[in-house]
Amino acid sequence: MIHHLTENRIAPFLQAVSKKDVLSELASLMHAACPECGGKKDILAILSEREQIGSTGIGDGVAIPHGKLNNLSQIEICFGRSFGGVPFGAADNKPVHLFFLVLAPTDSSGPYLKTLARIARFLKSPHTRSRLLHAENSAEIANIFASTSEFT
User: Which has the closest alpha carbon to 122: 104, 140, 146?
Assistant: First the structure.
């Protein structure tokens, strides 16, 4: 079960044009929605370290930047969308439009991997990706998440 994808955790109009900018915008969104996740700089550092290992762009216009933090008690998620798409070093070399930011406690390997798999499965559907791309605002995006068993 994936929780917490309410409107305050959704950025429907990312302005970023680079991977670094996307990670920065998502880190700001997460910090605002989840103060216990730490400061924007801390979140950005975790995400940047993970991207150095390899891009979290999984293809089909989707990326799932993620990392683990010591001070978390549960998995935290945010979502961002870029209409123009951002070069993100994705597996298929196509621009990324849909971003899920996932932060997890350092000791949550099982639930963490299950969450990443659920998100990937949810976004496998071209229909779902299209609905997310064409939603008019964060409320509509939140309703898409609320209407699927992966997010309830």
Answer: 146
Which residues belong to the active site? 66
Contacts of 49 (CB under 8 A, 6+ apart): 67
Measure the CA–CA gap between 35 and 29, rounded to whole angstroms: 10
For the chain, which residues make up each domain, given as ranges?
7-151
H/E segment holding residue 133: helix 126-134
Structure tokens at 122: 């949810």
- Return d(Cα 134, Cα 73) in angstroms, integer: 34
Give this prediction's pTM: 0.93
pLDDT digits (tens, 9 = 90+) for 56-80: 999 999 999 999 988 888 999 999 9
Q: Which CATH class for the 7-151 domain?
A: alpha beta
